[in-house]
Amino acid sequence: MPDLPWxxxxxxxxxxxxxxxxxxxxxxxxxxxxxxxxxxxxxxxxSLQRKALRHALGEEGYRRFFTRFLDDFFGDDDAAxxxxxxxxxxxxxxxYRHFEDDDRPFELxxxxxxxxxxxxxxxxxxxxxxxxxxxxxxxxxNQHWHSDNPTHWAEFWxxxxxxxxxxxxxxxxxxxxxxxPEVAGYNPINEPADATGAVIGPFYQxxxxxIRAIDRRHxxxxxxxxxxxxxxxxxxxxxxxxxxxxxxALPGIAREGVYxxxxxxxFYDRDVVAETFLRRTEFMRHTGTPxxxxxxxxxxxxxxxxxxxxxxxxx
Length: 315
What we know:
This protein is α/β, with parallel strands linked by helices. The chain has a single domain (about 10-310), classed as Glycosidases (TIM Barrel, Alpha-Beta Barrel). It is about 35% helix and about 20% strand. The protein has 11 helices and 14 strands. The strands form 4 sheets. A 7-stranded parallel sheet has the order 4-5-8-9-10-11-14. Strands 1-2-3 form a 3-stranded antiparallel sheet, with no helix packed on it. It has a two-stranded antiparallel ribbon with strand order 6-7. The longest helix has 27 residues, at about 45-70.
């Protein structure tokens, strides 16, 4: 296994132990430890899909299916292929259900950590850092299906119980990986959406203190509110922390989006996309901290020849 150096924040860059600038480039392993229907092709949320599979396959068949699924989804050959493309970072989204059962809160499940250990090792064997991303939280941190939410209500922000469980889980993760430089850092909450905006700031302060009491060395990758587009809850940046914007252009994700053209009553072209990016990253530029785009989405026109001509170029 290659020895990957520790990464830390220095000014507006990530650097290794020798002070060399490190640029993390890669993708997210969506669909694996956090199943997402637009990736794996099923309707509804992960928990409802699992319920349907258990009903169809029976308990034994259900367990066999997921034992195979969780091992085969990302293997050593996949990590080798990514390395051959020049990828040096993999964001690993996971659902809290791999680590905790709602019927037994605060009792952590070793199988979830074993899965993380496996992907970290497979990536590190090929010189790839991992970024650990809690993508679906107990109580659900946003209103959409990718947080395994069938209700469209983000109750995480309304109940201290859910918040306590997430702090407890991240304390355990920090203990387990505190001495592992091949883990680039921790992405504690994917796309939070605190509707009031009043809870997320104090909760991030609490979570940062809890993690740093155990592990001061790993980089924190913190998503902004409103699906990682709004960073107004932050004032002074935390130490050794990256603020992670998600940069989806609306015409690329809206039904019947038009580009260039009008989507949901607003005209979008290259200049508007650029202005949106600058607005979403204003906090990072103002504070002189690194900019890291945790997720982004391309814009497809629906015309194959036109889309192919744009590949590899910014829209």
